[in-house]
Write a structure and sequence with these properties.
The complex is a heterodimer. Chain A is mainly α. Chain A has one domain: Cytochrome c oxidase-like, subunit I domain (Cytochrome C Oxidase, Chain A), CATH 1.20.210. Helix content of chain A is 60%, strand content 1%. Chain A has helices at 37-41, 46-75, 85-119, 128-147, 175-203, 216-247, 262-295, 302-315, 331-359, 368-391, 393-399, 403-433, 439-465, 487-518, 556-561, 579-588, 602-618, 621-640; strands at 562-564, 573-575. Chain A has a two-stranded antiparallel ribbon with strand order 1-2. In chain A, helix 6 (216-247) runs antiparallel to helix 7 (262-295) and helix 6 packs parallel to helix 8 (302-315). By secondary structure, chain B is of the alpha+beta class. Chain B folds into three domains: 7-77 and 93-121; 129-255, Cupredoxins -  blue copper proteins (Immunoglobulin-like); 267-411, Cytochrome Bc1 Complex, Chain D, domain 2 (Orthogonal Bundle), CATH 1.10.760. Chain B has ten helices and twelve strands. Chain B has helices at residues 7-27, 44-77, 93-121, 245-255, 267-278, 331-338, 342-350, 360-368, 370-373, 400-411, and strands at 129-136, 139-144, 165-168, 170-174, 179-185, 190-193, 200-203, 209-213, 219-224, 237-243, 320-321, 326-327. A five-stranded mixed sheet of chain B has the order 3-2-1-5-8, with no helix packed on it. In chain B, helix 1 packs antiparallel against helix 2 and helix 2 runs antiparallel to helix 3. At the A-B interface, helix 3, helix 8, helix 9, helix 10 and helix 11 of A face helix 1, helix 2, helix 3 and strand 7 of B.
């Protein structure tokens, strides 16, 4: 599908590819609604799916945040009793699982889905139905994992789920089974999404957009999709082995049968370390869009930012064992991974320098989006530098599994990934919904989050260096020390900080409701932006662009609005067109026939079969047959379904239906 | 876009906060007060790590401050004050290459020192004392092997032939001695960590890992299991006790003294009977014999999933119990030992637990209902997956009389 977006007429060279029956399924109609709940449930529009990814991810952000607040409440005093040891272990396992797999990854998928096609001047992704399937896999997988709370308790082995502690004798509830199976399902979302976006970016860029004229966000997303493409299979293998270990008496991790528990660690971290870059690179892409816009300058050293992103993507595969410096790998492995880990700091540092140089000499406007972007530079730098201190393996043997590491990765992931996501939300909100978010509330949102995160995670540096290990449901006064570094005091500070952080983050939700009630339509180009996604209506029409633009520059939109009237070495930019002018020109030259693939029942049905099968693995083998039947039926339905709806699918039937020409893809 | 508050001022404030944080980090180098402080080395291995880490923290701190200062400067200086649209410059190769080369050079230096230190800390040829360490949910067992020359940890017992010594919770080493521990685990992965003496090393079932220890002076060095090991991970602690050579010799001789049954008719004698009927299934007391004079050998492998339970032969020579989670000493007596001067420490520690100093409250609570005190998998209904074997100590349903007898009996185990 979806390659049918070029202007064509019946005699324009493309031939009808599929002879279709009178209605797509013979018996019942295909969903063709453009409004109402059906238009969301069966949509294959990348923008709707992007919004659905985003809404779900933000829900899980607050769920994971709630879990975090419970953890901090438990640790506010040294012998907290809010959570039992068992519940505490479930809580930190699910906090990490939720934030990594159910918030940051799908949030990046939300932005990628929504903005990659817009940024490259395409009308949808390459495989729209697979895109929808991916979303439903994510949603059903996420719900599936979380139903474990009500079915005997959630996974309690930590998100790293080290063997053999993850085996049945050590974790007899079904929590880890839910975790294992659920993540296999959400993994399908990541994997299909990766293939979809790679194909989209490689094949569907607007005319003239060479790879080095591609917006930087799309570049980072492309790199992330390659990381996903290779990392998700590794974790899937590991999850598959664990599923067989727990459910079918396999002995992959049974020490008494000769297994080496370090196998799991290698599998997990070969996925787990690229995963870190999967989490952070989309946000790097976002701030690399935001900083130039609000500095009124192009991204400094664009090629270097692209190449450093790619370098991180490559080197990221060679550093996994730095999570295992205390595992007993032997000095040669430790030395190699220690040095490789330091090497990856170089391309990361390049990005920091390029961002600062982008602002340097600019014309900075401190919108909320810009504040979050600058916040990322500062906070991520702290996390990056503490990262260097434990790239040094001997020093890491003191720090690993203490709160110092917790501090480090929260500065990297919260200060990096999450601040970047918020920057993107404020920046792109008017594009997605046609409404600006309130800037005053936005600034409260930003400052409370910054203060909250530094109060929460800052003290963890001290707590960790003073020797408090992670993952302990209680600590003892006897090991707390006295005076300025008293651990009880700093734990309390961190807990108070987490409350401020929680309030700060929740202001975003308040802002959304407030702004949608109070604000009128947003201007077409509120930020004086630079890239293609702003060259269309807000929110964009279903087909994105009336006319596919031809690209001549990196920052195409900027160059359509501004003209250099300087002479020789002297440059002088003058605005020659407004966004409205650019859009009007596009509308005047609109493509005559625009074709979009039609909605479909099958992605959601197919995805629904998977958790049914997963429940079967845990509870009753016959459920697998039921789920399998659903999956098979959906596959046949999908396979036999034409890309676009036939006239009889419409009520009343249209003469053309949705289909006129097609190039069937998938 | 409508409102433009004085953002630079706020950012300046944020930067000040960050500086303060960095300062606090720097001060933490001088803190002496937390028992698990990673910046207060008291032995050569921890010192080696520290010598490597503090300059790196310093460099990282300086870089961080510079980055923040530059961001702050840029934010103030280049704020939109109506200046014309800036030069649309796409980069500057000199700046870009400089900032690749500069961090690369700094990191290359750090890498050199790091690799050297990694190999130094992996050295095993200079070992003077070997101790075996085994982790299980949720306590550590230590056993002191007998060398070919009949010595234990480099010391020859004065009064008895050396036999392997088994203890738990607190591991005793001689001061100023290069100790090598050989560690493994009986169930899941645990990690052995005494921050003031060395970093941590995972103890993995099916593998034996070595790790160096060395203490400059006598004292108690606190540690904690640092690899998440299940339900009671938080309650799996350990202490390394360093004793001067004479004191270590005294400790060793005491450990090898033969078993003495309590005097007949005492509460402790009743305790011995209770012990045999209630505890001896899992817990070993070396030298204990039955009515026929045959040694009573515990069989924890039949009852406990890890196959081990702490050896109680010299229980009251240690001053903590249940994975070093609770003190056997009352708070006042505990302070006397923990705060003893280096000269007095050995004598204070070797006193062990006297009846006046016994922390009866925690010990009795433990005997009354251990899983209520320390979360463990000890409820038979929850043990379908382990063939009914417990993970941790179950509630034995002891009467108060039995508990009193057992406490009296245990008090003599020293």
């Amino acid at each position: 599908m979806a390659l049918i977006e070029r202007p064509a007429t019946r005699d324009g060279g493309l031939v009808p590819a599929v002879v279709t029956p009178s209605s797509s399924y013979g018996v019942f109609r295909r969903p063709v609604e453009t409004k109402g709940w059906k238009s969301w449930l069966f949509t294959i529009d990348h923008k709707k799916l992007g919004i659905m990814y985003g809404v779900t991810a933000i829900f899980f952000f607050f769920l994971g945040g709630f879990e975090a607040l419970l953890i901090r409440a438990q640790l506010a005093t040294n012998e907290g009793t809010i959570l039992s040891a068992d519940k505490y272990n479930q809580m930190f396992t699910m906090h990490a699982t939720t934030m990594v797999f159910l918030f940051v990854m799908p949030m990046a998928a939300a932005f990628a889905n929504y903005f990659v096609p817009l940024q490259i001047g395409a009308r949808d992704v390459a495989f729209p139905r697979i895109n929808a399937f991916g979303f439903w896999c994510f949603l059903f997988g996420a719900i599936f994992i979380n139903t474990s709370w009500f079915l005997g308790g959630a996974a309690d082995g930590g998100w790293f789920m080290y063997a053999p502690n993850s085996s049945v004798p050590f974790s007899p509830t079904s929590g880890i089974d839910f975790w294992t199976l659920g993540l296999q399902i959400t993994g399908i979302a990541s994997l299909t999404g990766a293939i979809n976006l790679i194909v989209t970016v490689i094949n569907m860029r607007a005319p003239g957009m060479s790879l080095m004229k591609m917006p930087i966000f799309t570049w980072m997303i492309l790199i992330v999709q390659f990381l996903l493409l290779f990392a998700i299979p590794v974790i899937t293998v590991a999850l598959f082995l664990l599923m067989f270990q727990r459910n079918f008496d396999a002995t992959f991790f049974s020490v008494e049968a000769g297994a080496d528990p370090l196998l799991w660690q290698h599998l997990f971290w070969i996925f787990g370390h690229p995963e870190v870059y999967i989490l952070i690179l989309p946000s790097f892409g976002i701030v690399s869009e935001v900083l130039p816009v609000f500095s009124k300058k192009p991204l400094f050293g664009y090629p270097l930012v692209v190449f450093s992103g790619a370098a991180i993507g490559f080197v990221g595969w060679g550093v996994w064992a730095h999570h295992m410096f205390a595992s007993g790998l032997g000095p040669i492995s430790v030395a190699v991974f220690s040095v490789a880990t330091m090497a990856i700091a170089i391309p990361t540092g390049v990005k920091i320098v390029n961002w600062i140089m982008t602002m340097w000499g600019g014309k900075l406007v401190f919108t909320t989006a810009m504040l979050f972007a600058i916040g990322l530079i500062v906070q991520f730098t702290i996390g990056g530098l503490s990262g260097v201190t434990h790239a040094v393996a001997p020093s890491d043997t003191q720090q690993t599994d203490t709160y110092y590491i917790v501090a480090h990765f929260h500065y990297v992931l919260f200060g990096g990934a999450v601040l970047g996501i918020f920057s993107g939300l404020y920046y792109w909100w008017p594009k997605m919904f046609g409404k600006l978010l309130n800037e005053t509330l936005g600034k409260w949102n930003f400052w409370l989050m910054i203060i909250g995160m530094n109060l929460t995670f800052g003290p963890m540096h001290i707590i960790g260096l003073q020797g408090q290990p992670r993952r302990m449901y209680q600590t003892t006064d006897a090991r707390a020390g006295e005076g300025f570094f008293n651990l009880n005091f700093w734990n309390l500070v961190a807990s108070i900080g987490s409350l401020i952080l929680g309030i700060g983050a929740f202001l975003f939700v308040i802002n959304v409701f407030y702004s949608h009630r109070k604000n009128g339509p947003a201007p077409l180009d509120p930020w004086d932006a630079r890239s293609l996604e702003w060259m269309t209506a807000s929110p964009p029409k279903e087909h994105n662009f009336d006319a596919i633009p031809t690209v001549h520059h990196l920052d195409e939109f900027f160059h359509r609005k501004y003209e250099d009237r300087g002479e020789g070495e002297h440059h002088e930019y003058h605005q020659v067109a407004t966004a409205e002018d650019v859009l009007a020109e596009q509308e005047a030259n609109a493509d005559k026939h625009i074709h979009l693939p039609s909605p479909s029942y099958w992605p959601i049905v197919l995805a629904f079969g998977l958790p049914v099968m997963a429940y079967g693995v845990i509870y009753n083998i016959w459920l697998i047959v039921v789920g399998g039947a659903i999956v098979m039926a959906a596959m046949y339905g999908w396979g036999l379904e034409p890309a676009t709806a036939t006239p009889d699918d419409y009520d009343p039937p249209t003469p053309e239906g949705g289909a006129e020409l097609e190039v069937a893809h998938g | 876009m409508s409102e433009r508050p004085s953002t630079p001022r706020r950012l300046a404030h944020a930067a000040r906060l960050a500086l303060l944080g960095a300062g606090a980090l720097a001060i933490s180098a001088c803190a002496q007060d937390a028992p698990q402080d990673t910046w207060a080395p008291e032995g050569e291995n921890a010192q080696t790590i520290h010598n490597l880490q503090w300059p790196i923290f310093l460099v990282a701190g300086i870089v961080g401050v510079i980055v923040m200062a530059v961001v702050l400067y840029a934010v103030i200086k280049f704020k939109d004050r109506g200046q014309p649209i800036p030069e649309q410059s796409h980069g500057n190769p000199i700046i870009e290459y400089t900032f690749i080369a500069l961090p690369a050079a700094i990191l290359a230096v750090i890498a050199g020192f790091t690799v050297n230190t990694i190999f130094d800390l992996a050295e095993t040829q200079d070992t003077e004392c070997v101790i075996n360490v085994t982790g299980q949910q949720w306590w550590w067992e230590y056993d002191y092997p007998v060398a070919a020359d009949g010595s234990i940890c480099g010391y020859t017992p004065s009064n008895a032939a050396a036999v392997p010594l088994i203890t738990s919770g607190q591991v005793i080493i001689p001061t100023d001695t290069k100790v090598l521990i050989r560690g493994t685990s009986r169930d899941v992965i645990h990690s052995f960590w005494i921050p003031k003496l060395n970093g941590k090393r995972d103890m993995v079932p099916g593998r034996v890992h070595t790790w160096r220890f060395h203490a400059d002076g006598p004292g108690i060095y606190a540690g904690q299991c640092t690899e998440f090991c299940g339900l009671s991970h938080a309650n799996m602690r350990m202490e390394m006790i360093a004793l001067d050579p004479d004191d270590f010799q005294a400790w060793l001789d005491n450990q090898l003294e033969p078993y003495q049954s309590p005097e007949a008719g005492t509460l402790a004698a009743a305790g011995e009977v209770t012990y045999v009927s209630q505890c001896a299934r899992c817990h070993q007391v070396d030298g204990l014999v039955d009515g026929n004079g045959d040694p009573i050998v515990s069989a924890p492998d039949q009852w406990v999933y890890s196959g081990a339970a702490p050896n109680l032969t010299n229980f009251m020579t240690r001053n903590t119990f249940a994975g070093a989670s609770w003190d056997l000493l009352t708070p006042a007596c505990r302070d006397e030992v923990w705060n003893a001067s280096p000269e007095d420490f050995g004598a204070a520690y070797l006193k062990g637990v006297t009846p006046e100093c016994l922390n009866e409250i925690d010990l009795k609570e433990w005997l009354r209902d251990a899983p209520a005190k320390k979360p463990m998998y000890a409820d038979a209904t929850a043990l379908l997956e382990t063939d009914g074997k417990v993970r941790g100590m179950p509630n034995l349903g002891l009467s108060e009389d039995q508990i009193n007898e057992l406490v009296a009996y245990l008090l003599e185990r020293k």
